[in-house]
Amino acid sequence: MSHSRVETFKKCPYQFKLKYIDGLSTKFNLDPTNALALGTAMHEGIEKDVESAIRSYYSNYPTATPLMVNEAIKLEVMVKKAKEILSDLLETGQFEVEINSPDFIGFIDLLVQVEPNVYDLYDFKYSNNVENYLASSQLHLYKFFFEMANPGKRIRNLGFIFIPKVKLKQETEDIREYRRMLIEECEKQGITIAPIEYDPIKVIDFMLDVKHCIECEDFVKKPQKLCYWCDFKTYCQSDGKLDGNIIYPKEDE
Q1: Cα-flanking dihedrals φ and ψ of residue 29, to 5°?
Q2: Per-block average pLDDT, block size 10, for the chain (253 residues)?
Q3: pLDDT at position 100, please?
Q4: Kind of pairing, strands 93-101 and 104-115?
Q5: Are 106 and 99 in contact (CB under 8 A)?
Q6: Are strands 93-101 and 25-26 parallel, antiparallel or unpaired?
Q7: What is the reported pLDDT for 36?
């Protein structure tokens, strides 16, 4: 199990069933603000450089559009800011460290050794949804299962690194003026390192959620505001009659 799988089940058991039991997937959402494409590009940029971030972002799409160029501009400015502010951590840290446990799947964005066998753990979030992430169990699980999988090693500190997303609507400005304003707005933003105090209760809650997930038989739908962003929305709301965005697993899978 992973944090994201359990969170999917808690959010909507039916979505969990479609994705992880039935093995259905969806076509890539070509929206320029696709959170997965932007988040992956931000990670790539922080780990490597701005050029890698831009290349990662554009590689998801068949062609570039003006709206995509706007997002690429934001990435360029925010990656540079993040790398400058986090330079000390990035020089000594390890990226994408796998938690190799038979019970849990996870990848640590940044693991920084501070003493022999003692580490600080960080996760990057290119998002304005700070409060939800602060309440998340993700980093608590990473600490617990990392230490379980690596006897003798200890996580000292946990923290989210928040890179804000700039949202600036184009009004009457021409595109050059708008992009100049966009760069200025990005430059005003700050990168936040938010420390998290480890709470073992969140690990216990995760274990109970896994139990509920395994024991579930009905996988009911949970209509909510988040349905708007669900990749399975059309399929779900039509009771399977409209499935143009669904990719079915092959018979031998």
Answers
A1: -75, 115
A2: 93 94 91 95 97 97 96 98 94 94 93 97 96 96 97 97 95 95 96 97 97 94 84 88 82 60
A3: 83
A4: antiparallel
A5: yes
A6: unpaired
A7: 94
- Quote the pTM value: 0.90
pLDDT of residue 253: 53
Amino acid at 134: L
DSSP string, 106-145: EEEEEEEEEETTEEEEEEEEESS-HHHHHT-SHHHHHHHH
CA distances from 58 to 26, 69, 70, 82, 243 (A): 19, 9, 12, 20, 27
Q: Which tokens sit at 62?
A: 């068949």
Residue 7's nearest CA partner among 162, 15, 97 is 15
Q: Please report the domains of the chain, with CATH numbers, ordered by start residue.
A: 3-247 (3.90.320)
Residue type, 68: M
| 49: helix, strand or coil | coil
Cα–Cα separations (whole angstroms), residue 13 to 10, 35, 40, 44, 97: 6, 22, 26, 31, 29
Token pair in block for residue 204 = 């216990």
**What does each C-alpha distance from 73 to 64, 105, 183 come to in angstroms?**
13, 33, 7
Beta bridge mates, 111? 94, 121
